[in-house]
Amino acid sequence: MGDDRAILRENWDGRIPVCFSLAEDEIEQEKPENVFAHVPRQSYFPLVTEKVSKYFSQHVDKEKEFPESELLHCPGREAVESVFMSTVKEADALKHRSSIINSMQKKDHKNMFDQFWPINKKLMENTDEESIKYIPFRIYQSETGFIQKLFRPFSEEGQEHTLDDLIKHVLPDLDEDGNKRVLIQGIEVPGETPILWLSEHLSYPDNFLHICVVNQPSMTISDHW
Amino acid sequence: MSQNKTTSEKMSGIISKEQCFRCFKDMLACSDVLDDLWEIRYFETECYLSKKTIINVNRNKFQSESESRNEVLQEDTSLSNDEATEMYNNTDCQILSVEYHVLYSESYSVPVLYFNCHLPDGRLLTLNEIWSQVPLNYQERLQQDRWTFLTQVEHPYLGRPFYQLHPCHTDKLMAMVAKVPGGVARNYVISWLSSVGPVVGLNLRPEYGIPEKMAVTKEKYATTADGKDINVYTLRNGRQSEVRLIDWGAIITHIRVPDKNGQIDDITLGYDTFKDGYDTNPFYFGGIIGRYTNRIARGEFRLDDQTYNLTVNNGGNLLHGGNRGFDKRLWESEITQDGVMMRYTSADGEEGFPGEARVNVHFRLTAENELVIDFKATCTKPTVINLTSHPYFNLAGHAAGSLEGHTIRMDAENYTPLNENSIPTGEIARVKGTAFDLTTDTDFAQRLPAVPGNVGFDHNFVFGKPGWDKHMARVYHAGTGRQMDVYSTEPGVQVYTAYYVDAPKGKGGAKYGQWSGFCLEAQHYPDSPNNPTFPSTTVRPGETYKQTTKYAFSVIR
């Protein structure tokens, strides 16, 4: 487990500024004011947007035409917990062939959602006997679903794989002349960072590295700034 | 299809991506035959199965989310448009359109079932509504794990919401299934889907479980001297093995089986054409021997105070049914649901035998590479019947020419010693300490010079009472890894090592000479009609002669 506890702490407390605005075609009368919130990075929208939903729902008739071909239904907290646990299990399947999650008691599974750290410590373990098999990660680019592939933390020769290695493996055609930025937890991580370290320190609570590949803002915009 | 899985994979219940994709294609082949509407789709290099269908459920049950009556989702593949419309208008029925996808999960190394269920107006069912449709018995069992078992997720390829049966327990389920003999029905994916599918209304038809069906084809082979058709039947089991039979003599002309490298060879001696040798068949290659196989002393026996004189055709005795035994007769034949049935009626007095005997012999090639032969016979008068099958084997390939490299083990502790006329003395003798002791693995070729008489083996080994299905012998060829196990309900087995064979016109130009093959003919003992202490070969009207002999082929790597 990483000794870089400061980094874990920073992540855990990480937040993203978000602006919520009502879609044009939902507006009945006046357009309501936008809502700004500092949302915890390590959480899920349905858990933190209750007040936002309540506020906007005053301005629409009812929730019509939920875009169910695009969004997962969220009937309640349990749905979020379900997605979370499902992802945690998948991460353990990738890392340890599910050996750790299966050896945990059911109550640990249930408590993980609330008392995260003590239980997560087990999942983050990288013991000498059973090193991590595959790194759990998902890569998000706009307009497509996420990409998830099998990727080992070490090469056949025993060399540590880096973030650059992972990106090259998954997105071999990525624009090489620097038009794309690779972001994890909101940070542009140096490409030579070992992927195993990233998995131990910058994973989200569901034990996955969620990596965003976004377009570099164009030079003209930054000129204006 | 062959399960090329490593032992550890099988034990842990997981499956490789390649194996899973092969299972998908195999399942698709079944589906095409059954018109079950599964399709294979591709996403980049990944393939997956998909099926869209309509189901109808009880509308009342459906609308109430809390209560659910004891009804199961029924899949109605027979619905035509009219029927569907009628059902839609019927207020008791609720039509749902369902889409099932089966994907391979690299994270879990197992297949995963995804599905969506829509109302006719396009609305997706909610998770609770889906739960209300799950059969009651599953609901009870899964209630505690509700939120972990059935969840809504993002489809890994299509990126849109789908419901998923969580894969985290699939490996345990399949490891358990693999422990049960015959537990895996046809392939891993079909087995798994037939177990978990019913939870969400997907009930695979039982036909999916049938091992790749044996294919049997029939063609014209030749014509007899008096102008009748001889047909050849090819039995394939979809696992690389093939057996060919002709209805002349009910002769097995080819047995093609793989070696340890998957190389397939014909391992039985025979001819390329009818005229090359099957018409006279001097060495009885592959035939069904009867009405009495092996010898009857002086061609004579007594039954019910009557003496019968049969054809004497070999060394002063009757051998293998006479001048024209069953292997030189044209049989009737037909394809059955799992093989080929051959029938012959042996006339009253044929070769001197009393009574009209009706004989059925059924040949079947199983998915496990076993050639199973079932014999039945009845007679209009008291008679004697002793039938066997007579293929000559060479596990190195029919043309190998010798028994080098073959190892034999016979589970018999006794044999019937012969007199100078090749007829059993009547004694049952122990094999221990003699050249006939094959109870441990024995180099076949090297044992031959030690057998008394200098003609190799041509002896009957004794197991005892008839009607008991038992393992009789195992022959193994190390070079090819081929192994043959013989099982039979017969009390004895004749071991013959081809001393007298001289067939220069064998298949594919092969020349079969002395020691070029071996026979294991499950039978009643020779000359039983003249030996009241031997198991009886008498068959009276109203009785049925029955026996089953099985040749099981395998490879040892």
From TrEMBL, chain A:
* Localization of this protein: Preautophagosomal structure membrane
Q: Which InterPro entries match?
A: Atg5 (IPR007239), ATG5_HBR (IPR048940), Atg5_HR (IPR042526), ATG5_UblA (IPR048939), Atg5_UblA_dom_sf (IPR042527), ATG5_UblB (IPR048318)
Task: Enumerate the spans annotated as Autophagy protein ATG5 UblA domain.
Answer: 12-65
Q: Which UniProt keywords apply?
A: Autophagy, Isopeptide bond, Membrane, Ubl conjugation
Give all residue intervals belonging to the Autophagy protein ATG5 UblB domain: 134-213
Ranges in a coiled coil: none
Q: Does the keyword Acyltransferase apply?
A: no
Where do the Autophagy protein ATG5 alpha-helical bundle region domain residues begin and end? 78-125
Q: How does it sit in the membrane?
A: Peripheral membrane protein
In terms of superkingdom, the source organism counts as Eukaryota
- Keyword presence, RNA-binding: no
Against PANTHER family, the record matches this protein to: AUTOPHAGY PROTEIN 5 (PTHR13040)
According to its UniProt entry, the function of this protein is described as: Involved in autophagic vesicle formation.
The record's note on quaternary structure and interaction partners says: Conjugated with ATG12.
Please state which protein family the record places this protein in. Answer: Belongs to the ATG5 family.
Q: What is this protein called?
A: Autophagy protein 5
Identify the species of origin: Mya arenaria
